[in-house]
Amino acid sequence: QVKLVESGGNLVQAGGSLRLSCAASGSIFGPNSMGWYRQAPGKQRELVATITSGGSASYADAVRGRFTISRDNARNTVTLDMNGLKPEDTAVYYCNCYGIATGYLQVWGQGTLVTVSS
């Protein structure tokens, strides 16, 4: 069973940077996608960035050019480097995994809070 644990959330000033990390336990085998989603207060959860096991990354328009997603398949980790943070980036960030290893079910971490002050 795949389990995800996020870390790295913090309070940061606008324009600052943060790195979020997600560690997956369990066997991550076969084609899969790992990524980051976020949910701001009163809003729906939205996609931030995803990366496939082959290394293909995609980004939401709101973060493209500021955020970079990467993964280490050997260590089953995925990282989100966030630069040029804005107050509107404030949200709980969730790690996600989907693929044959999860039985084609969405698996979520518990979330980590990012707060960007103006």
Largest sheet at a glance?
A: 7 strands, mixed
What would you call the quaternary organization? single chain
> Hey, roughly how much beta strand do the residues contain?
over 45%
Helix content: under 10%
Q: Averaging pLDDT over every residue, what do you get?
A: 95
Structural class, from secondary structure content?
mainly beta
Terminal-residue CA separation? 40 Å
Weakly predicted, low-confidence segments: none
The H/E string reads: EEEEEEEEEEE
Taking all Cα atoms into account, the compactness measure Rg is 14 Å
Number of helices: 0
Query: Got a strand count?
Result: 11
Shape: globular
Question: What is the structure about, briefly put?
Answer:
With 118 residues, this protein is an all-beta fold. It is 0% helix and 53% strand. The chain contains no helices and 11 strands.
What is the topology?
Elements: E1 3-7, E2 11-13, E3 18-25, E4 32-39, E5 46-52, E6 57-59, E7 67-72, E8 77-82, E9 91-99, E10 107-108, E11 112-117
Parallel strand pairs: 2-11
Antiparallel strand pairs: 1-3, 3-8, 4-5, 4-9, 5-6, 7-8, 9-10, 9-11
Account of the 3D structure:
With 118 residues, the protein is mainly beta. Helix content is 0%, strand content 53%. Strands 2, 4, 5, 6, 9, 10 and 11 form a seven-stranded mixed sheet that branches. The protein has a four-stranded antiparallel sheet with strand order 1-3-8-7, with no helix packed on it. A hairpin with a 6-residue loop joins strand 4 and strand 5. The protein is globular, with a radius of gyration of 14 Å.
